[in-house]
Amino acid sequence: MFLVRPRRPLIAATVLGGTAFLAHRAGRRSAAAKLSESSQEARLSRLEAGEVAEPQGEALVQRLRDLSELRDSGVLTDDEFAAAKQKLLAA
Q1: Over the stretch 26-85, which tens digit does the pLDDT of each residue have?
Q2: Strands (E), the chain
Q3: Whole-number Å distance between alpha carbons of 25 and 28
Q4: How far apart (Å, rounded) are the C-alpha atoms in residues 69 and 29?
Q5: How large is the angle between the packed helices 9-49 and 58-73, nearest 10 degrees?
């Protein structure tokens, strides 16, 4: 009598399911990153266009935070950040 090695369908299913899960999660992260970049670009274009007339109080603080986030994410250089900040403070 010869010995038949038992198959392991659960291992194959687990590997396939895990791979699909990781691929889906990576796709969602990529989509979120693209959305984040486009929203940052939209915020930057609004700031550059000067759509805000005389921001005051909390609005000024929020604009400065937005500029800081853009600088921290690499969208703005330090020089661009300083120029935009001066423009906001001068308004």
Answers
A1: 777 777 667 667 777 777 787 777 665 545 678 888 888 988 988 898 888 999 899 988
A2: none
A3: 5
A4: 19
A5: 130
pTM for this model (two decimals): 0.39
Residue with tokens 């090695």: 5
Q: How far is residue 71's CA from residue 69's CA, in Å, rounded to a whole number?
A: 5
What's the length of the chain? Answer: 91
Rounded to the nearest 10 degrees, the angle between the axes of helix 78-90 and helix 9-49 is 50
Contacts from 81-90 at CB under 8 Å and sequence distance 24+?
Answer: 84/47, 84/48, 87/50, 88/47, 88/52, 88/55, 88/60, 88/63, 88/64, 89/60
- Reported as half-sphere exposure (CB side, CA atoms, 13 A), residue 26 has a value of 6
d(CA 27, CA 60): 36
